């Protein structure tokens, strides 16, 4: 892979790492802010998302070092609405996952036809993020609604 592609790949991977690390913080925070009768399964789901975000960040960092780069110590934006109703938390999660999806698609554009391992990685995480978006979308729907949730 040429030097400009390597640098662009490292930059894209570091953006992914920063974003995923912000997901660890967000999902951990959300898991602490859920109250009510459905708390246990929702908290469990949020904690699983925090663990998944950490795993995604670690994988991105491994690729950064594989390419000879330095993993970022930054963390992505930690904006929140200060609303802790479950629908608000799910909407924030939906927005976070949409941003992650964009970052993985951006990486795919950079590495396509230049690095099979990075291309496979980007595609795999795009699938993961698309499926996660679908799960959140379904959680935001009212029982019986078949139409996708619209913000």
Which helices and strands appear, and what pairs or packs with what?
Blueprint lengths: L2 H30 L6 H28 L19 H26 L4 H25 L11
Helix pairs in contact: 1-2, 1-3, 3-4
Brief synopsis:
The protein is mainly α. The protein is built from 4 helices and no strands.
The number of helical segments is: 4
Total number of domains: 1
What gross morphology would you assign?
Answer: elongated
CATH class: Mainly Alpha
- CATH homolog superfamily: Ferritin, core subunit, four-helix bundle
Global Rg: 16 Å
Class from secondary-structure proportions? mainly alpha
Q: How far apart, in Å, are the first and last alpha carbons?
A: 40 Å
What's the story with the biggest beta sheet?
A: none
Helix content: over 70%
CATH topology: Ferritin
- Give the percentage of residues in beta strands: under 5%
Succession of helices and strands:
HHHH
Mean pLDDT: 93
Low-confidence stretches: none
CATH architecture: Up-down Bundle
Description:
The chain is an all-alpha fold and 151 residues long. It has one domain: Ferritin, core subunit, four-helix bundle (Ferritin). It is 72% helix and 0% strand. It is built from four helices and no strands. Helix 3 runs antiparallel to helix 4. It is elongated. The mean pLDDT is 93.
